[in-house]
Amino acid sequence: MLDEGLTSNDKVFVGNQNGDVQQALKGAAKTVEATYRFPYQNHATMEPMNATARWTKDRCEVWCPTQNGEAALEATAEAAGLPITQCDVYKIHLGGGFGRRGAFHDFVKQAVAIAKQLPGTPVKLLWTREEDMTHGHYHPITKCKLVGGFDAKGKLTGLHVRISGQSILASVRPNWLKDGADPFTFQGMLPDGDHAISYTVPNLLIDHAMRNPPVPPGFWRGVNINQNAVYMECFVEELAHAAGEDPLAFRRKLMADHPKSLAVLDAVAEKAGWGTPAAKGVHRGLAVINTFASYVAACAEVSVDDKGRLKIHRIVAATDPGYAVNPQQIEAQVEGSFVFGLSALLYGECTVKDGAVEQTNFHDYPSMLIKEMPKVEVIVMPSGGFWGGIGEPTIAVAAPAVLNAIFAATGKRIRDLPLKNTDLRSVS
To answer: What share of the chain is helix, strand, coil (3-state, %, to 5)?
Structure first.
């Protein structure tokens, strides 16, 4: 289904377009092509889904960990069969949300449904870990085919990015679709706004072939920027390699019209020592994205030994959120986002067999260990004039920065995540 979407022009939605890509690629002196894949991923919150409910014919009360009290209240009233004015939801601390406890309150509805069988009796519902892991709303599965074209002078003249895969909005918020298209699919790749692309290419086409398999998708911390940053940032490095140019220098030529993105990229490159020798066996990789109204970049330093064992030594991260009210909290958010993003890169994959998700607990859907966590150096560089996000943007640059560093270390392009499925030993 996803492969067909990469090649078919049936039901394709355009998210960003300028110039004539087909003509540019047709007349290119050299083309580069790659296909990337991003898997289903679980929210895997430490606290499984749970709620406590008390129902009577006149009133329903619910105590639950939620990211969206209004949605929880709506779910309560629906399940209780009562007007919203006769329902109360008490929000309590949650042991992880990441989007799972935002739009989805199936656990609330279930608790209320059970409580209705025992009027006046408080009922506490707690899903097992296995129930939680196999009844999620998963990060959407997508593939992406990218084609770039160079003219005879080595200038990038055309870029076509085709995303094939699920639409979250089509499943969760179909009324948010715009003429059938899901604008969220293009986060980090749009022509302008809070998720604008960081590069200028004379002929550009970014489109989406919507393909919706039955596994339910959902908002997953960072949402579509996670795969889009991998697709764009890793392919930009492929283009730089094909052009025989330094990845930083190649990017800088495409970012002349994007000074804020360029500023965070230059900041991490300078602090990490780009262009100077790293420690023996250590190699660097870059990534940058504009998302959630913030500009973020990362430079990762990694090594891969002769047995293919990866060590991520350091990540330098720069964030321009416009204003920085609490720089210490920003640093904590950025550091935490790398735990999340790197866990997904290393291990995050849900597979489906016989109609069910196979991963059931942390033994087969692990998070990264403390000993695996790199040193994170955070640069907070607010430029003023806007208010950007903090908790999600830098998740996106974790994976591509590391993947680009792995290529520098091994000569291998990893286009299929997570890394647990790949032999990282160097190309001979």
So the answer is: 30, 25, 40
Q: What is the pLDDT of residue 145?
A: 98
Identify which of 324, 336, 341 has the alpha carbon closest to the alpha carbon of residue 419. Answer: 341
Fold match between 2-42+138-421 and 50-134? yes
Using CA atoms, how far apart are residues 220 and 80, in angstroms rounded to an integer?
A: 28
d(CA 365, CA 130): 11
| Token couple for 194 | 């809070």
CATH number of 50-134: 3.30.365.10
- The CA distance from 292 to 303, in Å, is 31
Please name the residue ranges forming H helices in 154-214: 168-172
C-alpha to C-alpha distance for 65 and 124, rounded to whole angstroms: 12
Element holding 129 (H helix, E strand): helix 129-134
Query: What angle separates helix 327-347 from helix 395-410, to the nearest 10 degrees?
Result: 50
Is the Cα dihedral 99, 102, 108, 109 positive or negative?
Answer: negative
- In DSSP terms, 159 is beta-bridged to 148, 204
The H-assigned helical ranges of 156-307 are 168-172, 225-243, 247-254, 259-272
Closest by CA position to 331, among listed 390, 265, 378, 373: 378
- Residue written as tokens 């959902």? 218
Structure tokens at 219: 């908002």
- Distances 25 to 66, 77, 147, 157, 192 between C-alpha atoms, Å: 48, 55, 8, 8, 24
For the chain, the structural domain boundaries read 2-42+138-421, 50-134
Per residue in 79-107, pLDDT (tens digit) is: 999 999 999 999 999 999 999 999 999 99
* Per-residue pLDDT, 428: 64
CATH hierarchy code of domain 2-42+138-421: 3.30.365.10
